[in-house]
Amino acid sequence: MSESIQLQCSISPHGLLRVRELAEDGEAVDPALAARILGSFTRSQADGLFHLACIELQVHLPTVLKYWQGYGRHFITAVCALPDLEEARSCESLSIPESWIREYYQQAPPQRGLDFLSVHVLEAQWREMKGHFDERLSHYRGSIQDLLSSLNATWNLVGKVYFHLAENKRDADLPFAFMSSYTTRLDKHARPQHLPLARAIQEFSDQEHRQGLVSLLKPIHRASQQLPWLKDMSDKASIFHPQKWTSQEALRFLRSIATLEEAGLVVRVPNWWDAGAPPQARLTITLGDKKPSGLGVHALLDFNIQISLGNESIAEQDLKQLLEYAEGLVLFRGKWIEVDHQKLRALLDRWQSLKNKSEVDGIAFMDGLRMLAGVDDLSGETSIPENIRDSTRVVAGQWLFQMLETIRNPENNDMIRPGPGLKATLRAYQEK
Q: Which end of the chain lies in a sparser environment, N or C, as judged by fewer CB atoms within 10 Å?
C-alpha cells in the first residue's frame, strides 16, 4: 500500500487559498487524490474549489479540505437553484447570502493563514467561482444540466422536483400512492436531500426567495400545458400533497413519464415498469431450435410459440382470462400489467393461427430468415400487424443461432477448412 501524502491548506496575505505538499505536519491524503487536488489548485483557486465540490464530492477528506469542499458545494447548490439559468447561460446574478457567509466564516477550522481569512475573502472567492463557472459555460455547447452532470452526476439531481409513484398494498381500491418532493441541497453523505414539495412554499415564502419558487415549479407548469390531469392537480394545489390513486390514475401517470421528464421533472416509479416496454402480454416465436432433417434453403425449421408476461410463460387460457379484466393496469398473479383488449385479442388470434400452422408443417429456412428480419410472418401476412408489433418477438433457436454465427464468422468454423487434400497455397483472404 502506498504511503499517504501530507497536504496543507493556507490563506495568503492577499486572501488566496493555496494547497501544497509538505514533508510533515499536513493532512494525510492518498497519493492519487493528492495529485488531483494539487493539479486543480495549480490551475486556479476557483478550479480547486470546483474540483473539491464536484470530482471529489463522494470522497472522504480531512478537516480543512472538507471545509473548503463545503464552500464549493454551497456555490454549486446555489447555481442549481438559480432561476432561468438555462436561458441566461450565466450565473452573474447569483448573490451570496450574507447571513450564511458570516456563519460559514465563523466555522472555519484552524489552518495556516487563518488570520487572513474574512467575510470579504469568502465573497471574493464567490465572485471568482462565478467567473470560473461562466467561463466553463461559455465553452460548453450542451445544456446546464449536462454540464453539471459532467462535473458530477449527483449535481444533476439537485434543485429538481420529483414525482414518486409507489404501490399502496393496504388498499385494494386505491392500490397506488403519489407524492411530490424537491431537492435543494445534498446531505452530509453527498446524497440529494428530499423534502415534501409543500415545504417549498414555506421555504420560499418571503419576497426575497419568491423567484426561487417560481423557478422550482416551472417544470410542473411546462408539463401541465400538455397534460390536463396535471394542470387540474396544479390548479387545485393537490400536487403539493400525497394522493391515493386508482390503477387507472396510476396508468395515466405512467404513460406520461416521457412528457414529465422532457419538461424537467424527475420521475420515480416501481421497478416493474419500463417506459420503453411496459409490462404486458407478449408473443415469442423461436425458430430452428433443432437441426432440420432436410438440406439447403428449403429445409424446414421447427418453431415454437410462447406467450409470456415479463419472464413468466402463460397458457392460452391465461390470455383469455386477461380479456375478462377491465382495460388498464391490473394485478395479475401478484404482478401489475397493462391490459389492452384490442392487443390481447390480436395476440390470441395470431397465437391460434400460428399454432394451427405448426401442427401441419414447419417453415422454410429462407422464410425463417425473413421473419428474423421482420419482413414476413408465418400467417402469410407481409408484416407483423402494427398494433402487436411491439408485443411480438422472433428469435433464433439454438441450431439456427449457431448456423447464423457460422455464416457471419466462417473463419471460426473448422468444418469448412480445405485440409491437407488441397494442393495449393491460399491467400490470406481465401483462408478466411
A: N
The C-alpha atoms of residue 348 and residue 323 are separated, in whole angstroms, by 10
- Return the closest-CA partner of residue 240 out of 181, 173, 281: 181
**Which of 354, 362, 164 has the alpha carbon at shortest distance from 267?**
164
Question: CB 29: neighbour CB atoms within 10 A?
Answer: 22
Distance separating alpha carbons of residues 166 and 237, to the nearest angstrom: 20
Q: Let me know: does 385 contact 319? Beta carbons within 8 Å.
A: no
Q: Can you tell me which residue has the cell 446574478?
A: 93
The residues, ordered by sequence, that sit 6+ positions from 313 with a Cβ below 8 Å of its Cβ are: 306, 307
Residue type, 90: S
- Residue 55 is placed in which grid cell? 470530482
Nearest-angstrom CA–CA distance, 221 and 271? 27
> Could you tell me the pTM of the whole model?
0.68
C-alpha to C-alpha distance for 98 and 126, rounded to whole angstroms: 12
C-alpha 325/C-alpha 342 separation (Å) is: 13
Spell out the alpha helix ranges (H) of 236-315: 247-254, 257-262
Burial group, residue 259, by CB count within 10 angstroms (0-12, 13-18, 19+)? middle
Q: Which helix (H) or strand (E) is 35 found in, with range?
A: helix 31-43
> C-alpha angle 146/150/152, rounded to 5°?
115
Cβ–Cβ < 8 Å for 183, 192: yes
